Write a sequence for this structure.
């Protein structure tokens, strides 16, 4: 059972840690890095952050595909796609970075405080892992509860 975040911008909103992560990953990872979570909430936040940084690809494509991150010409995070790992390199003005797992903190490594990049990341995540459907409390909690979804649960 995930704890509710009840401080800062989340005061009184009744959102659990996984809901906060998918709603504002930039804030979530900032709060973890700054030690903003305390006590049992801090322990859960560390677990969630670790899981969110090492998400396995869906089982049906895990051995044939990879994550292709897109970086805009001005150095901002654009989105990610899941592509065949044998697909040739991209040629064009955008940069691609490929990984075998998904790291939901990735946009923050490209450009700090990139709210748009984090929203784009969540749109891609929703599309590939949740069939484009809404991030409901039950869906995100169930996903982050399942240790088989992560490299380092």
């Amino acid at each position: 059972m995930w704890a509710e975040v009840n401080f800062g911008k989340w005061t009184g909103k009744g959102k659990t840690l996984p809901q906060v992560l998918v709603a504002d990953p930039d804030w979530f990872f900032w709060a973890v890095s700054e030690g903003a979570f305390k006590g049992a909430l801090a322990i859960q936040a560390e677990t969630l952050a670790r899981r969110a940084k090492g998400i396995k690809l869906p089982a049906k494509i895990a051995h044939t595909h990879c994550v292709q991150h897109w970086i805009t010409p001005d150095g901002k995070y654009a989105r990610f796609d899941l592509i065949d790992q044998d697909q040739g390199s991209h040629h064009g003005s955008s940069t691609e970075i490929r990984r075998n797992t998904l790291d939901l903190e990735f946009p923050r490594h490209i450009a700090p405080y990139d709210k748009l990049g984090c929203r784009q990341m969540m749109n891609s995540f929703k599309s590939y892992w949740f069939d484009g459907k809404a991030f409901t409390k039950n869906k995100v909690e169930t996903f982050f509860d399942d240790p088989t979804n992560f490299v380092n649960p």
In short: The helical segments are 17-23, 25-33, 39-52, 106-110, 115-129, 137-145. The longest helix spans residues 115-129.
